[in-house]
Design a protein that fits this description.
It is a single chain. By secondary structure, the protein is of the alpha+beta class. The chain has a domain at 110-295: Distorted Sandwich (Glucose Permease (Domain IIA)). 27% of the residues lie in helices and 25% in strands. Strands 1, 2, 4, 5, 7, 8, 9, 10, 13 and 15 form a 10-stranded mixed β-sheet that branches. Strands 3-16-14 form a 3-stranded antiparallel β-sheet. Helix 1 packs across helix 2. The radius of gyration is 18 Å and the shape is globular.
Length: 296
């Protein structure tokens, strides 16, 4: 899986966590398309599977996996607020905090809300990437609110995919006043790129939380989307109290996950370099706090 690193200005091949299982469930072989798909559906819809994995990730027996994971995926431990040996479980490592200053917040109106791999669309009604070409999805389905969907039709859309090695806190992308997070129930399909190619509507199906943010340039919708082994989306902000861009909003427990941002039409312009890479069919690895867009 080729990804462009925005900070380092080069492409890299992403290491896939649990590659064997992902290929079995979502690959192109006959076995995957028959038995694998059935197993994938069952894993996504039987919540106790993710719950059991979550219990292990929070247990003391999972601690031995931390250093193995760091070495396998080249996680930069110099950014950690706490020393590696202080993590009493894999989940404690997974929801780690970072040192102050390692994710500077850009002096622009809207910033990247979380470390991850992103796709960017100035006009969300014309999604034509390798994930979505020939597939059908709607804002009505994603938001479960036809009136809200109408408000954002044709506006910029940002899709972020957090891989297991990433910092898994998500932050506010702009200044504003957030509503309480609304829970929209759903299954927990994997958000690995292989799974997304086979089932590109996953982000409209999975369990998610939706927050409406009132800003000086209109309303922004931010969604956090769960995935296999990520049944828990934890919000830490106070609803109806003003937030600043870069303020912590919450975090995901263990696994891959997604964030989605929606903006009203003709309110902001997404950065040109981000739009260009998406047009080329390449995800962009962005870091929390990097520039996302400016006012129109």
């Amino acid at each position: 899986m080729k990804v462009f690193d925005r900070q380092k200005k080069h492409n890299f091949e992403e290491k896939v966590y649990g590659k064997g299982a992902v290929e079995f469930l979502w690959g192109d072989s006959f076995l995957s398309k028959t038995v694998g798909r059935v197993c994938g559906w069952l894993v996504a819809h039987l919540s106790f599977v993710s719950s059991l994995f979550g219990l292990f990730a929070k247990s003391k027996w999972s601690k031995k996996e931390v250093k193995r994971f760091i070495e396998a995926y080249g996680v930069d431990t110099s950014e950690f607020l706490d020393p590696v040996d202080s993590f009493e479980s894999f989940n404690a490592f997974f929801i780690r905090r970072l040192k102050d200053g390692v994710r500077p917040i850009a002096n622009v109106p809207v910033v990247i809300p979380a470390d991850g791999r992103y796709l960017f669309y100035q006009d969300g009604s014309k999604l034509e990437s390798f994930y979505f070409k020939g597939k059908h999805w709607t804002l009505d389905w994603l938001l479960q609110d036809p009136e809200l969907a109408k408000k954002f039709k044709g506006g910029p859309v940002v899709l972020g995919r957090l891989a297991p090695p990433d910092y898994h806190w998500f932050h506010f992308p702009c200044d504003g006043v957030p509503s309480a997070a609304q829970l929209i129930q759903g299954p927990l399909f994997s958000v690995n790129p292989t799974a997304l190619k086979q089932r590109p509507t996953i982000f409209c199906e999975n369990k998610r939380k939706l927050t409406r943010i009132q800003t000086s340039f209109g309303e922004v919708v931010m969604l956090e989307i769960g995935a296999t082994n990520v049944g828990s989306i934890h919000e830490v902000f106070t609803p109806e109290v003003a937030c600043k861009k870069g303020d912590p909003k919450g975090y995901f427990s263990f696994g891959g996950s997604q964030v989605v941002l929606l903006f009203e039409p003709e309110k902001i312009q997404l950065d040109a370099d981000l739009l260009q890479k998406t047009a080329e069919g390449i995800e962009v690895r962005c870091l929390l706090g990097q520039s996302l867009g400016a006012y129109l």
